[in-house]
Amino acid sequence: MKMTWRWYGVGNDDITLDHIRQIPGVMGAVWSLHDKVAGEVWEMERIQEVADVLASKNFSPAVVESVNVHDDIKMGLPSRDHYIDIYIDTIRKLAKVGVKVICYNFMPVFDWTRTDLYKEHPDGSNALFYEKALVEGATPKSIVDRILEGAGEKTMPGWEPERLSHLEQLFEGYKDITEDVLFENLKYFLEKIIPVCEEEDVKMAIHPDDPPWPIFGLPRIIRSREHIQKFLSLVDSPYNGLTLCTGSLGPNKLNDIPSIIREFGSRIHFAHVRNVKVFENGDFIETSHRACDGDVDIIEVMKAYHDIGFEGYMRPDHGRHLWGEEKNCRPGYGLYDRAMGVMYLLGVWDTLERGVK
Ligand SMILES: [Mn+2]
């Protein structure tokens, strides 16, 4: 297992590479060109620039999260071929600097969705929170406003104000897209890109839907064992793989994550490890990584990875915001709780390595 850390780039993240290299065991920075919108060309000079900065601090550039997929590809519009060509161009360029895994998602309109960015825990820390009834009774626009207002000046992946300003148009575009059609459009995309990935030795790793159920009538197709199995069979190549996110699958308690890891382990290229506490009414809040703090048994998750001999990349996913850091950090991406998360995950891992059961 190779431990990594999501980093938003020079001038775009208060947590610097110098901070990150003091966290034990972190070998790579998970990066992206965060100013690029879906479908935009990634210039080689920009890619090289990030690779050089990472190399200067001894970090691997092997994981990119994300290269976003244009809505025309998800909707299956005639213009998709143009955007797929651009995607292929980006894959080839990223391969040149040593990128081995690209994380992406295929969620229509909304990426991850929450109702509160800073919900307080009893201990005074705060974290991302999802209130089920509120989303069920809300309009998409009101959730967008709520999230963007909460984020203030910070840009957040998946929540680009420009794109979301065309909300009605986006919903109109998806109105006839069922789960089956979305799967077909994903298959079309994969059939074009996976041969290129095989040639370039870059593995694609789809991120599950977060939360793992349909919202606002939009289809969501990566949210259970059955969906994952269907997804992997769309194109049966090791290069068509998963980002297994415990925090995304976790809010549905029917998802047995350790058994999903054991079943599909060889296709998991990137592990997001995060804990969530799920309430009886379906609400959930993100917690520390410690197994007993939430409903995802992180120890069993790590044991499953250890048992399958997982050699892919891992990162602590979101963390809580501690000691007032929410004033400066991106929601979910503070320093302290994620750093403690790394130590917890490595603590469990190191113990397993010693054979202590
Ligand atoms: Mn994740």
Automatic annotation (TrEMBL):
Question: Which Gene Ontology biological process is one annotated for this entry?
Answer: D-glucuronate catabolic process
Q: What does this protein do?
A: Catalyzes the dehydration of D-mannonate.
Sequence similarity: Belongs to the mannonate dehydratase family.
Q: Which GO terms describe its molecular function?
A: ferrous iron binding; manganese ion binding; mannonate dehydratase activity
Put simply, this protein is called Mannonate dehydratase
Q: Give the Pfam families listed for this entry.
A: UxuA
Reported EC number(s) for this entry are: 4.2.1.8
Gene name, Swiss-Prot/TrEMBL: uxuA
Which transformation does this protein catalyse, written as a reaction? D-mannonate = 2-dehydro-3-deoxy-D-gluconate + H2O
Which top-level enzyme class is recorded in the Swiss-Prot or TrEMBL entry? lyase
